[in-house]
Write a structure and sequence with these properties.
The complex is a heterodimer of chains A (about 160) and B (about 450). By secondary structure, chain A is mainly α. Chain A has seven helices and three strands, in the order H-H-H-E-E-H-H-H-H-E. The radius of gyration of chain A is 20 Å and the shape is globular. Chain B is built from six helices and 24 strands. The chains are: A mainly alpha (about 160), B alpha+beta (about 450). The interface between A and B is large, with 73 and 79 residues.
Chain lengths: ~160, ~450
Amino acid sequence: MPSNPPSGPDPRLLRLVNMALVLTGLSVLCGLVIVDAIVHPGRYLAKEPAPVETKAAVPEMKAAEIVDGKDVESGFVAEGDYLLVKASCTGCHSSALVLQNRASREGWESMIRWMQETQKLWDLGENEDKILDYLATYYAPKESGRRPNLEIRDEDWYFLE
Amino acid sequence: MPKKSPEEIGINELYSQDPIEADRRVWGRETDPESRRGFLKKGALALMASALGADIVFAANMPAGLIPAGLFLNRDGVLPGKHPDLVVLNDRPVNAETPAHLLDDLDTPASLLFVRNNGIAPENLNPATWTLTIDGEAVHAPKTYSLAELKQKFPVHTYRLVLECGGNGRGEFNPPAKGNQWTTGAVGCAAWTGIRLKDLLQDVGIKSNAVYIGYYGADIHLSGDPGKVVISRGVPIAKALEDETLIAWAMNGQDLPPLNGFPLRLVIGGWPASVSGKWLTRISVRDRVHDGEKMNGGSYRMPQYPVAPGTEVPKEDMTIIESMPVKSLITFPKTGAMLRQGQVLNLRGKAWAGDLTVAKMEVSIDFGATWQTAQLEAPANRLAWQRWTASVRLPSKGYYEVWAKATDSRGVSQPMVVPGWNPSGYLNNATHRIAVKMV
């Protein structure tokens, strides 16, 4: 890699960021403003501009995409505090790790404690309750027997030649 | 999702080389010099937040050198060097399993070998400068070898060895256990080439107080903290000194796949694959049971006695998993096969039994009421899986499940229901099932 002035971001990498933005189809203002408004409602009531500079990194603006009730980017059920959960839980690991697990509120809390004790998860502060409520509501355990039915979708049956 | 671009690989490479420098170069981010957390410049936070599409809550606490997961490279669902039909359970860290019908080869191809990573796979590693150090309380003196030296100095061996994740099958346990919800595909058996660990340890010289070995690798902790070990497990010295315990640089005659440990790894067949350390840089010969990351707590441990589902088991009652249990898969046909009346159903599969061999293989088409013995081949070598075949006739039209059951050399069979619940969801070796119809 060529060396760069120590102050600013590498323009090549800024293009990379641009590309990442386009590829992931993310909201810039919408996503920011929505979450920011949740976290700091006063800021918007006072009609202050959002304290961000996004000029270099915004080739395209798209609203946060929700399909079939799920946030497309993370796969989270797009209800309740999902944006808070997305921002808090996907810093270190993929949302997929959350999506494939099911647990009670206590179970999710023990996972958070484990991540705080061993994986450097930071203090979630007053948001912890909201995160736990969300996870325990939308990703609760399902009752099942000792072996589930084999689920084959109609279109997946095929003739064996 | 579009395929990843070279630039996207770049961000991960950059972070794997120097996460703090990567922070500065990608985002212009500088953190508090004392806490190494937070953002000194608003612009960097804004840039990162806008790329993520969400504000970063508690940004002041965000550690330096962390790649925001929203930008991880494999958002398209296809992993580098892997078959597109691998099921990606998690993309950070990468965990992906192989559908049973793709495990039909005797030697699992590199593109079809499951991935179970605990941290971030390091990229762009240089085999020319790679070294392996042997140290620990039970060596006379630490010794370091280059990869080239390992290849030249010791006899080279190739063995077919099964690697299976201890949590394979976790998804069926109830109440659910935390972690990757593997179904049946965290297993594979390939031809591994390398040197015997015992030859290397003999060259180093180990003391009579050797109890255990523990490995260290070059993978990167999810938190980005270079001081944190991702995983460091191992085996008792007796297992370490078996002929088949390899320090391997090749899989099926090719360099190891980057996601599976390139350029050097341990391969210790028959035990949870987590003992087969990847991106191997160091092996410590210990005078006690190795106490590395994921050797303690609930990791890779089972209750010493059967427990009711959901039981909280005291730590001292949990023991380290050693040999994996007997298990098998139906690798042909793929589930969902429809046959016409009169058509014979030809079945193929694999069976393995940890440190033991498989003595008998049976299939059932009536939910385990009756069993038909399958033809079973001998393993290519100790700790390799064994091929089996069978032909069955479905008596009439209708829905059937084919169940496959292996029995090991000590007479222990796979259970037809999910075996004993355990807190972390290990060792589910229930019979594999596929659905078939005669129409």
